[in-house]
Write a structure and sequence with these properties.
heterotrimer; A mainly beta; B alpha/beta; C alpha/beta; A: mainly beta; 5-stranded antiparallel beta sheet; 1 helix; about 40% strand; B: alpha/beta; Peroxisomal Thiolase, Chain A, domain 1; 9-stranded mixed beta sheet; 12 helices; 14 strands; globular
Chain lengths: ~130, ~325, ~375
């Protein structure tokens, strides 16, 4: 098992970043010193599950282990607390992936160490649509 | 025992059974129209986390003392799915285990949590039925083996509860109608033997026992949810037991999503909860090969009127779907080696 | 720090291509030997710039190995790594060391071997400079980050991907006759726009390529070569946040902005004194944003400036005269040194194309999306 994954699993499972207890600035990934007020009084904070797409791309290249997931849609998402995050966009029609689209986080497999190795889970996002009745 | 929250999830992808039949029979379709297929980055664990979160969102924050995932498609033969669910929920002081009893593992979890809560050992527990069912390519099971998840938060606190579990029974025998050996990828079954001696005998036995012990009649129930290996069996067993097609209709999902094994009857209950009203009584009868059946009498309470602002009806989740073809399906299910 | 002007007294570079028959050491020795030969001196120190040696060649401690192969022993040698700006960073450190120490000369070698890897390993190699935990782990690639930035840039300034491709056309026009360039052919705007999509909206011919190469330069206090003095007027470096998307203004390149501000102060030149411009042109939108941050074009106008010919080879200011990262190539840690070596040769009138009246060159080398950058300003004196 990757120890780095184990160390970060709460952050990956629950999108846990930081909040500065002095000025309330929030950030993801987590930080140790507030980049706004430089305070080191920082606590963990779960980021919101919803946001909007501010940029996106569909990639035809993959990192090792991700070959089966091509083409891969990736979004730059502004969460409801104004924190930006980059993540895969899954289970969404390509036509719906556009700037301004609403998204919500989902819990998915990220990768695995082959068929006999451990499975790594984490956050991705998917488009939230209002269904026509 | 009370249900204070519930959640259901069906993957977005659908394989029309016509596509399966075209390849293997040259035409026609399966008994169900389509089945739900987990995407390449979904598995039992991912679906379990989604439904546990939905159920907890409805129940509100509570002290979880047990997380039991009922499944026959565990991503790990050894390493529990339930601890990953616990970690994703931020819960650590809890029992956690995966249950296996073919398609009744989810309702088995409900029974066990009822006992734990009832004994005072814990105050709340989450029972999940989740599967990414596999059918051998070309086999009849391939038409129906689907993917889905359902979760229920159980507690003895009746404040704002969704429903009350009034009574439950369980009936088991050693009957090998359907099984999968340790190192095999796909299950095997005994075709028509899975009918009378398996499904019908066990479901009828547990429901008969429940009705006899409670003195309830089919007409005392507004709805009935049976395990759905195919579209026909639940309709037939309902008729035999004296339930009408109107009673089973809201919980009958096999025609559109297939059979998601441990999630099958639990998801039927979720679907029924979505339209039920306070005072409605629901029969839930699961069936697990091997074999056994759990039967429940569930009374809907006032809390059903307030499902919380995050609740998405199962019908919306099911209606947001995208069709795939058989070749995509083989890639997703890892059938191509 | 004194004001001693450090000179570039020797250059060496290999062709950038798939060097199947050459190892990382072979390439390094090839370019280093040229630089040693041109400079006619021996260095007091060897600095090796490289990012991927562990990943692609299972080799560390290369400064020691290469020094030995060059017959340079009893010498101070070490490696510098700052992702894609390692090359120029090594020169920056060498410059600082020479100005503050009683040593005469430093040989800087930048090398990269990228093609011994499989396609997905290469994708990972180019993404190693980004966060492992939050980028690489999630399967996000370097080109997809470039694409996310590009779309933001395009939306902000209302510029199309097709128009941005003019940067790539310019690069290939300039590399066509350059022997060491990876690409020795021109491409039409249409063929660049129609090439396959790497990460939308970026097409393959808009992304800098993968290749092997090595470039070396000798920095010294005195010039013992047969060529005109090329002095380093300034060498500045500044870093910024690793993720572009966590910045207050996602299009602001503060690292590059700080570098150019300090560079202009230190060199005492004005922007319009610059005759040769090399920037870290990984993809067109980033190229445009760099040029605008440096101040050569107004925000949003770099593309139209390219289209109108402002940066053509024969203009007052020539951009990417050997093709830039796009067409000359981008062997990561060697790139910054290729830029400096090319500009040096161009200023000394010994490049593949004879450009008149080129006195001052500016080289900008960057890692990631402006998370670290280095700027050198060079001047030839006849």
């Amino acid at each position: 098992m990757s120890v780095s994954y184990w160390r970060n699993r709460d952050r990956y499972f629950r999108i846990i970043g930081s909040i500065c207890n002095s000025c309330k600035y929030e950030s993801f990934p987590n930080f140790y010193n507030c980049k706004k007020c430089n305070s080191d009084d920082i606590s963990d904070k779960e980021m919101p599950n919803h946001g909007k797409i501010i940029s996106y791309t569909v990639s035809s290249e993959s990192m090792p282990g991700f070959e089966k997931e091509l083409p891969m849609s990736i979004g730059l998402i502004k969460l409801n607390n104004n924190v930006n995050i980059v993540a895969q966009i899954v289970d969404s029609d390509l036509d719906d992936i556009k700037i301004g689209a609403n998204v919500k986080s989902v819990f998915r497999k990220i990768s695995s160490d082959g068929d006999s190795g451990q499975i790594y889970y984490g956050y991705k996002f998917k488009i939230v649509k209002k269904l026509k009745k | 025992m009370y249900i204070s929250g519930y959640g259901g999830y069906v993957p977005r992808l659908r394989l029309p059974t016509e596509d399966i039949a075209k390849l293997w029979k040259g035409g026609g379709s399966g008994p169900n129209k389509a089945k739900s297929v987990a995407n390449i980055d979904e598995d039992t664990t991912t679906m379990a986390v989604e439904t546990a979160r939905s159920a907890l969102s409805m129940s509100g924050p509570c002290e979880i003392g047990a997380i039991f995932v009922g499944t026959e498609s565990k991503p790990y033969a050894v390493k529990p799915t339930s601890t990953i669910v616990a970690q994703a929920l931020g819960v650590h002081n809890t029992l956690a285990s995966d249950f296996e009893f073919a398609c009744k593992a989810g309702t088995e979890a409900m029974q066990v949590i009822t006992g734990l809560v009832g004994s005072g050992m814990i105050s709340h527990g989450i029972a999940l039925g989740v599967d990414t069912a596999q059918g051998r390519p070309g086999d009849n099971l391939e038409y129906t083996a689907g993917s889905a998840a359902a979760a229920f938060v159980l507690t003895d606190n009746n404040k704002k509860s969704i429903a009350k579990i009034e009574y439950s029974t369980s009936y088991v025998t050693d009957t090998g109608d359907f099984w999968r050996r340790q190192t095999e990828s796909f299950p095997r079954h005994l075709s028509r033997f899975t009918g009378e001696p398996a499904y019908f005998h066990h479901v009828q036995s547990s429901v008969d026992q429940l009705l006899s012990e409670t003195k309830l009649q089919p007409s005392d129930f507004k709805y009935a949810v049976f395990h759905q290996p195919n579209p026909k069996f639940p309709i037939q067993v309902a008729k035999r037991l004296g339930f009408t097609s109107e009673q089973i209709e809201p919980g009958l999902l096999n025609p559109i999503i297939g059979n998601p094994y441990s999630a099958s009857s639990p998801l039927g209950l979720v679907s029924t909860f979505d339209i039920a009203e306070p005072g409605d009584r629901i029969l839930l009868a699961s069936f697990g090969s091997g074999a056994g059946s759990d039967a429940f009498s569930i009374l809907v309470e006032d809390g059903i009127l307030d499902k919380g602002k995050n609740h998405v009806p199962l019908s919306d989740i099911i209606n947001d779907n995208r069709e795939i073809d058989y070749s995509t399906y083989t890639k997703l299910r890892g059938i191509l080696k | 720090m004194n004001n001693l002007e450090i000179k570039i007294s020797g250059t060496g570079l290999t062709k950038i291509t798939d060097h199947w028959s050459h190892s990382l050491v072979d390439l390094s020795v090839e370019s280093a030997k040229q630089a040693l030969s041109e400079s006619n001196i021996l260095p007091d120190m060897v600095i090796f710039a490289n990012t991927l040696s562990s990943y692609s060649s299972s080799q560390e401690n290369l400064s020691t190995i290469i020094s030995e192969k060059l017959g340079l022993s009893n010498i101070n040698s070490f490696k510098i790594e700052s992702s894609s700006c390692s090359g120029a960073m090594a020169v920056n450190i060498a410059h600082k060391l020479l100005r503050s120490n009683d040593i005469e000369s430093i040989l800087v070698i930048g090398s990269e071997k990228m093609t011994d890897l499989s396609p997905s390993e290469t994708t990972k190699a180019t993404t190693l400079g980004e966060s492992y935990e939050y980028t690489q782990f999630f399967g996000i690639t370097m080109n997809s980050l470039y694409a996310l930035f590009s779309r933001l840039y395009m939306e902000n300034y209302n510029i199309s991907a097709d128009d941005l491709s003019n940067f790539s056309v310019l690069s290939h026009n300039n590399s066509a006759s350059c022997n060491h360039a990876q690409f020795n052919r021109k491409f039409s705007l249409d063929s660049i726009n129609r090439s396959s999509i790497i990460s939308s909206p970026l097409t393959m011919l808009n992304c800098s390529p993968v290749g092997d190469g090595s470039a070396s330069i000798m920095l010294s206090k005195n010039n013992n070569s047969n060529f005109n003095d090329v002095n380093i007027l300034s060498s500045t470096s500044s870093n910024s946040s690793i993720d572009f998307y966590s910045r207050d203004n996602l299009l602001e390149f503060n690292s590059t902005a700080n570098c150019i501000n300090n560079a202009l102060k230190e060199s005492k030149i004005n922007l319009d004194d610059v005759d040769l411009l090399e920037v870290h042109d990984v993809v067109p939108a980033i190229t445009a944003n760099i040029i605008e941050t440096l101040g050569f074009s107004k925000p949003g106008f770099a593309t139209s400036d390219v289209i109108s010919g402002k940066y053509d080879l024969n203009s007052k200011i020539s951009l990417s005269s050997s093709g830039g990262l796009k067409a000359r190539g981008n062997p990561l840690s060697a790139t910054g040194i290729y830029q400096i070596a090319e500009v040096t040769r161009q200023l000394q009138n010994r490049s593949h194309v004879d450009l008149q009246n080129k006195k001052i060159g500016l080289c900008h080398n960057m890692s990631g999306i402006d998370n670290n950058s280095v700027i050198h300003i060079l001047e030839v004196s006849n």
